[in-house]
Amino acid sequence: MSEDIYEEAKRRVKKKKDFHSDLTNYLVWSAILLFINLFVTRGYFWSFWVIGFWGLSMLRKAFSVYGTPFSSEDWEQKEIEKEMNRLKKNDFPKKKEHDKEEVDKKWNDDELV
Predict the structure, then answer these.
(1) Based on the structure, what is the number of domains in the chain?
(2) Mean pLDDT computed over 96-105
């Protein structure tokens, strides 16, 4: 069992290492493309298309390596606890004007259609 855990941990570390390498390449090549676009070819900013789509690809890879912000199993439970604490801080439930038991009526119920 500990060998399985070690292999899984090793695989995850390799994915993170590969991502960091790819991210470095992305940043360096983006700077190079911007330099070429701004100082050599001028005019139309074609490099933004390359950088933009490559950036979306990097974002997808980041989510596959690190997961999405809402992908953890206990995320929902943590959010429920946060909301409960917020509600407790704000003295929930507060009585609202329309929640009064006795409302000052200026009509009779049998007059309503």
Answers:
(1) 1
(2) 57
Q: What is the DSSP letter of 96?
A: P
Q: How far apart are CA 34 and CA 57, in angstroms?
A: 18
Q: pTM for this one?
A: 0.63
Q: With the CA atoms of 27, 28, 29 and 32 taken in that order, what torsion angle do they form, in degrees rounded to the nearest 10?
A: 120
pLDDT digits (tens, 9 = 90+) for 16-74: 999 999 999 999 999 999 999 999 988 889 999 999 999 999 999 999 998 887 777 78
- Is residue 90 in some structural domain? no
Instruction: Quote the CA–CA distance of 40 and 38 in Å, as a whole number.
Output: 6
Does 49 fall in a domain? yes
Here the tokens at position 13 are 């570390």
Q: What is the span of the domain harbouring residue 32?
A: 2-69
Contact 57, 46 (CB under 8 A): no
Contact present, 19 and 65 (Cβ < 8 Å): yes
Tell whether 29 is covered by a domain.
yes
Degrees (nearest 5) of the Cα angle 58, 64, 52? 20
